[in-house]
Amino acid sequence: MKIQDMMQIALMTAVIGMLGLIPPILLTFTPVPITLQTAGLLLAGGLLKPKQALISLCLFLLVVAAGAPLLSGGRGGIGVFFGPSGGFLLAYPVAAFMISLWVNRLKKVTALRLFVIYVVCSIVILYMCGIPFQAMMMHIKVSQAAFLSLIYLPGDLIKAGMCAVFTVKIIQAMSYRKRDLHKGRRAV
C-alpha cells in the first residue's frame, strides 16, 4: 500500500472521529441517537477506493473498540458494539465498501447518482443490519424496531444529499489540483 493511500485512510478515519465531536440528538423513545458520523461513512465511500474505505471504517471501529470516545456523545469501548446501535456500527465498513465499489464503476460522478448510491447503501445496508440487532438488544419485535427507525429516514436523506454535493465538489477540486500539477503549476 502506498503512503498516499495510508494518508487518505488516516485522514478519513480522523474526519469520521471528528464528526463524533458534534453532540448527538437523543430521542426519548429509542436509545439509538441521531449522529453525523454516517456522513463520514458516506464521504469515505465516495472519495476512497473500495479497499481504502473498508480499512478506514474498520480502523475507526478498532479505535472505538479500544476505548477512544470517538462516537457521538463521547461513547467508546467494546461495550458500544453490544448496545442497540451496535448493528449499525458493525455495518459501517460494509456500507462504505459497497458505496466505493459503486462510485468507482461510474463513468461520470454526479450529485444525483451519488445521492442514489448513498441512499441505497446507507439506508438499506445499515438498516438491514442495525434494525434486527436493535430489536434483539431491546427485546422487541423487528417490526417494532423498524417502526422506531422511521424517525431516522429524513435525516439520512438530508445527509445523503449534502454528502453527494460535497463529494462532487471535492472530486472536482482534486481534479483541478491534479491538472495543475501535470501542467507544471504549483498546487496551492
Automatic annotation (TrEMBL):
Keyword presence, Secreted: no
Family of the protein in this entry: Belongs to the BioY family.
Taxonomy, superkingdom: Bacteria
Membrane-protein topology: Multi-pass membrane protein
GO molecular function: biotin transmembrane transporter activity
Transmembrane annotation, as ranges: 7-26, 53-72, 78-103, 115-137, 157-176
InterPro entries: BioY (IPR003784)
Gene: bioY_2
GO cellular component terms given for this protein: plasma membrane
Organism (species): Bacillus safensis
Main location: membrane
Keywords annotated in UniProt: Cell membrane, Membrane, Transmembrane, Transmembrane helix, Transport
Pfam families reported for this sequence: BioY
Subcellular location: Cell membrane
Key word NAD present: no
Name of protein: Biotin transporter
